[in-house]
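Sequence in, structure out. First:
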Amino acid sequence: MKKVIITVIAILILNGCSRTADETIDHSQHDLQIADFKVVKIKAPAVISHSGKHTDITTSVEVDNSEPIKRVWFEIEAATFSLTDELKLEMKDDGDVETSGDLVKSDNIFTGRYVLTDPAPNRKYWINYYYEGPDKLVKQIGRSSFDYFPASELEVIEINAPSQITYTDPSTHFKATVEVNVGYPVTDIWYEIQSSDGNLKLVDSLSMKDDGNRLPSGDEIPDDNIFTAQQSLGIEVPNGTYTVKYFMVKNPQDAPEEIGTTSFTYNNSQLDRSFVISDPIIPNQIARGVTLTLSIEACDKDNLDDIQSVSYELYRPNGELFVNAKGISFFPLFDSGDLALHNDKTADDGIYTAMLTFPKNEKTGEWTFIFYAKDRANKVINEIIHVLEVQ
C-alpha cells in the first residue's frame, strides 16, 4: 500500500459565525444520536488544491451532549486506500489554535489539524468522523467528501465556436466548447454574447456544462474536461457580427476571470427589411450661433434592435464634405433619452436626436444633411436628404 503524507487542519467555526472560506460545506447530521450525544454540525472543505510546501484542510464537528466525550477523530480515505494510512486524527476542544486549530475551549466544537506535505492523487476523498464515549463505545458519527487535485495550474486548452451562422429553422443555434487541461472541479464556466458595437446583448450569462447532457447544454461526453453550452438563434435576432466572451471561476473563493473571446456573423435569412427612417424634424432656416436639434424617426414592424446606427453627413454650400477636427464626417443621432447631451426625450422610442451649432465664422447658405440608417450587417437601409439654410 502506497503511503501518502498529508496534513489536515480542521478549523473550529463557532455557531453564528460566517464561514471562513467559500468552499466550506455544512454537512449537518441531525439524525445521528448516541444516547445523549448528538452531532449538530460538520463543516469541511469541498475542494482542495495542493498549493506548495504544505496545504491545509479545514473541518470541524459541533456536538450537543450532556455526557463526557472520551475521543473524537477523523480518518481520510479514497476508494482504494486510506490517505492517512492507519492514523486516527484527533479532534480537540482545547482552544489551542496553534496545535489543534481549535478556537474556543469547551464549546463542544472539536477541531483537528493535518497538513498536506506531498501532492496526493487527483481524485475524490472521504472524511469519516468517529466518536468514543466513556463506555468505550465507538460509532461513526458523520462523513464528508472533498475533491483534491495537484498543484498543476488549470489552463484552457482550446475554445471551439463557429464564425458564421445562417438561420435555417427553429433549431438554429450557437454552440461553443471550452476544453481545460485537467479534471479539475471548476466552479463555473460561462459565456455572454453581444453585438460587436456593444449595444445589443443576446446572452448575459450562459453556464457551460461537462455533463454529457445534449439537452439543454449540448455536451457530448460527461467528465471529459470539455464544457459546452448552446444558445438558440431565431429570425428575430438581427443580422450582424457578435462577440462572445468566455469567463471562468476556478475556485469558489476566486473572482471571475475572462478566458477567451470569439466572434461570429449571423444571417437571419430575412431579405425583406421592414424598417426605414423618415420624418426628419429639422427647421428650414437657422442662424449661426444658435443650437439646433435634429430628430428623425426609425420605424420597424418587427424589431428596432436590427438598427445599428442612425447618423448624418453634412455638406457646405460649396459642396464640400464637413469633417471635424478629429477627422470625423459621420455624426451619430441618439435614442438614449439623454436630454442634457442630445435633447432626446425618451429612450428606445425609435426617435433619434442630436444637437449642433453652426459657429459664427462658418459659411452662410444652403447646407445639405444626408441621414443614414445602417443595420447590424453594416448595410445602409435607406437615406434621407434635407437642405438647411444657415443665415
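Second:
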Amino acid sequence: MLTEDCESSVWFFFCGPTRRMRFPLSATLFIPAVVGASAVLLVASSGAIQAGQFPQMLLFILLSVVASYLHAHDPAGGVVSPTPALFYAAIYIFNPITAFFVVSMGYAIGNTLPRTWVTWRACFNGAQMGLSALLGSLVFRSLGGNPAALSFAPQILPSLLGPLTHQVANNFFIGFLISRMRGASFVRTWISFVQEFLWTNLLSIPTAVLIAILYTRVHHAFVLIFLFSLPFQRWAVKLYLDERTSYTRIIESLVRACELSLPGTRGHARRVADLSVAIGRQLGLIERDVESLEYAALLHDIGMIGLDEELHSGGAHSSPQRLIDAHTKLGAEIVSELPRRELPEMILHHHTAFRSGRGEVPGSAKSTLIGARIIALVEEVDSRLHGLFPYSQPEQSAAVLKFVASGRGSLFDPEVVDAFSVVYATGAGGRPKADTVESRPLQAGGATDEA
C-alpha cells in the first residue's frame, strides 16, 4: 500500500495554499535506487529462472495483474487489493528469483492499468514488492520449506516466516519512502506500518498454503481457484471501505453543521485535524490511531453547537473557562453514540489532558491520551493564529511559536511540542524551514482545500 501527501498540512496551516508537493531528495534518490537494484538483480540472476515454468509463471503474472487491478481505494489513503494470498503462494511455489520475477512483473503491470497510477509509482511498487517476495522466498527455502512435502509439522515455521519476511520488507520500503516524504521518523513509520497491516495480511496465509498444496500435489490449474474468488474478495473489501466512507461523511456533516452555527470558524476543524494527523504520524502512531485522532480533531468543537447563543451574545469572553469546560463535556456526550470509544475521551480531555495531574487521565489508553494532548496544542495554535474564541484578535505566527515553546512541560506535553516543532521546521517537499517564514497576522476564517 502506498500513500502520498500532496500538501504539507503544517505549511498550509501557517501560510495558506502552496504548490503541489515536490519529493525531497532522499525520496527522489530512493525510488530509482530500488527500481535499478531490482533490474540489475533480475538481469544478473535470470539464469535461475526455469524455462520449463514459463506457462505457470505467465499464469501467476496474469492473476497478479488482475488482482492488482481489482483494488479498492482506502479513504485513509492508498489502496487495498487481494494480492497477498497470491504473492505468498508464489513464495511457496517458486524459487526466489522466479518468485521475484512473477510478483514484480504482475504487480507493476497491474499498477499501470488504472489511469490514476503514474509510471514511477508502478515501477517502484513492482520493484519493492518483487524484492519483498524474493526475501520471503529465501527465508522459506532456507528453513526447509517445501509445499510438496508430505510431513506437515516441519512446514509450519517456514510457511509463517516466509510471508512475515515479505510483509516486513514491504513495510520497510513503503515506510522509508513515506517517512522521507513526510519528514517523519523512519523507524516509527516502519513500525506503525507493521503494526497496522501485519495481522490482516497474514490472515491470507491459509489461502496461500491451500493454493500451493493443490498446485504442487494435484495440478497447476488449481491456482485458478484464486481467480474465481477475486470478485467476492473485492466485494468484501469495498463493503468495508464504503462503510468507512459513510462514517467519514457523517463526521464531516457534523463539522459543517457546527461551522454554520458559528460564523468565522470555517476551516478551523479541518486545519486542526490536518496538523494533528501530521504530528501523530511524526510520533509514530499506527494508522488506526491516526484515523481516530483525525476524527476527534474534526469533532473537537462539536459541543459548541449547544452554546452558540452564548457565543453570539458576547458574554462568553467574560467566563471563557466555564464555556470551555461546558463544550468539552457536551461534545463528548454528542460523539458517545459513535462506535469508536476513544473519541469521547479525546474530546472531553482535549483542554486538560496534560495540565491536570501532569498527564494521567484515569481509564484512558495511551493513544487516547496522546491524541487529546495533540489536539490541545494544535487547537490552541490555530485559535491564536486566527483570533478564534477565546481570543478576539489574530496573533503573529512568531508569537504563537514562542508561546508554544514557553508552554513546553507546563501547558503542553513536551513530546507533542517536540513533534510539532519537527513537523513545522521540516515542512515537506523541500519547502523552506520555519525560520524563513515571514511573521505576519493571519486572516481569520477558513481556506479552500487543494488536491
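Remark: The longest strand covers residues 72-73.
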